[in-house]
Design goal:
Length: 137
């Protein structure tokens, strides 16, 4: 009789383990409220698996790699374009053909501080701030 109980208990755990999916199966044991299931848990991780400095490096390495990709593909090229545009604006000369941010195309007639006088047509001159010059036309 005693061996049959042990055998029944062994069979229960054998069935329970066969039903488990990655060690996560709700188990409702006798005497426990069915509204509060108990979950089977796996063994704790090995001592060196996720602890110490190696685990910290493994955690932050993907974030660092993502930042580097964003830096080299997005941030750095944008900074380079901004520097080139700033150099272009600083070196504006009379007679250069430029396009404004609004789409006007004209020739630089005069550069005065932060403003540029553009000739957009015959005897049609427009004052534009340097910041609104998009680039060469």
């Amino acid at each position: 009789m005693h061996t049959s109980k042990a055998l029944a208990r062994f069979e229960f755990w054998k069935v329970f383990r066969s039903l488990s999916v990655s060690g996560f199966v709700p188990v409702i044991l006798a005497g426990i409220n069915p509204a509060h299931p108990v979950y089977a848990m796996g063994a704790p991780p090995a001592e060196g698996a996720h602890g110490g400095p190696a685990g910290l490096v493994a955690t932050f390495l993907p974030l660092v790699l993502i930042f580097l990709v964003f830096y080299f593909l997005l941030i750095r090229p944008q900074q380079k374009r901004a520097r080139e545009h700033q150099r272009f604006i600083e070196n504006l000369r009379n007679g250069q053909k430029v396009i404004t941010a609004g789409g006007l195309i004209g020739h630089v007639v005069k550069v005065e501080g932060d403003e540029v006088l553009l000739e957009v047509g015959k005897d049609v001159k427009v004052r534009v701030q340097k910041n609104y010059i998009a680039g060469p036309a």
